[in-house]
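During the second year of the project, the team shifted from modelling isolated chains to modelling whole assemblies. The rationale, set out in the original proposal, was that interfaces cannot be judged from single-chain predictions alone. As a representative example for this report, we include one of the complexes processed in the last quarter. Its constituent sequences, exactly as entered into the pipeline, are reproduced here:
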Amino acid sequence: MIRLPLVLIFAALLFSAGVYGVLARRNAVMVLMAIELMLNAVNLNLIAFSASLKDVSGQIFALFVIAVAAAEVGIGLALVILLFRNRASINVDEVDLLKW
Amino acid sequence: MTAQEYAFVVVAVVGSLAAIAVVTARNVVHAALYLVVALASVGITFLLVGAEFVGWTQILIYVGAIVILFLFGLMLTKAPIGRDTLDHTWKNRLAGGLVGVVMFVGLAALTLRVWPVGTTPASAPVDGSTAAIGTSLFHDYVLPFEVVSFLLLAALIGAIVLARKDDGDEA
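Output from the structure prediction step:
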């Protein structure tokens, strides 16, 4: 069977890659993809601890995270498409109407 | 090391490389396809740990639905190709890389300090069958389940309202 720390390190790498993606990417769709990576890292941790603690609750929470992630992608991409229609660009640094 | 651990290490290495490729690829469609590999490797890890239902849900929803949504988003926004248009300046990339590396080293060091790989016992596979998940979901987590279904409905309606063309403005 798989030992807990191995899975946790895999999840840490996925999360760190996601953080880098959110900070370094300029295209809004790529930022959303990086957020998906981070959510998956969290799911991985939930499942790993569910196996380690012999408790099915971790898997239930992972399912909830998947559902919320699906809702987030749907809304996020709708916002991106709306942004593209209004500004003809989805670069996150050009969306500065609210900037002081 | 057990057979599952060898399989997991292979899957984890592939998934890690794919995840790094997602955030560094210069072509958006390639990034979406690397995302498929990364998400599928997470799903296979779920299956290896024993969480069958969540593993197949992961593969169905992420690989089947969410990546397709991403590809639609890329098509509808005429996503450009190339480092300059996809990424921030090299200063932002350097800062982001620094934050990412420090975060990974910190998390990994913390994990190995609490659960050293050599001494942590391997856990038996968890019961991740559909029956076990269903029993728990509809006995202990009925209210959160209903709230999530309402959230999905609201998100669906919200996405349609946001993305549809406003006829009133154009007329």
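The mean pLDDT of chain A is 89. Residues 4-91 of chain A form a domain with the Helix Hairpins fold (CATH 1.10.287.3510).
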